[in-house]
Amino acid sequence: MVGFNDLILLAITCKTFNKNSHVLLFGLGEAEDTAFISSAIALAEKQGLKLNDHKIVVMSDRGSALIKAIYVCLPLANHMFCGVHLLRNIKDKW
Predict the structure, then answer these.
(1) What is the per-residue pLDDT for 2?
(2) Among 1, 54, 67, 94, which is 20 to 30 Å from 48 by CA?
(3) Total-model pTM
């Protein structure tokens, strides 16, 4: 049995042109794996969010599960890596 402290929080957020942030979808899962992330993307699209579009930019860290889910579920979207996460990775390594 999975306890509350063992759950992973996944949030799909967006930033508008006037720099406001909005949570579009969030959920709890047992593992940060490709299946969980793909399910969240599918749920967001089922709710009417058009994420698989060449006008959409998806920004993420370099988590392998995220990269695979975005590649499979959102092939038309532009995928970029978050500069803040990249900087943290560099600081952690040095």
Answers:
(1) 63
(2) 67
(3) 0.77
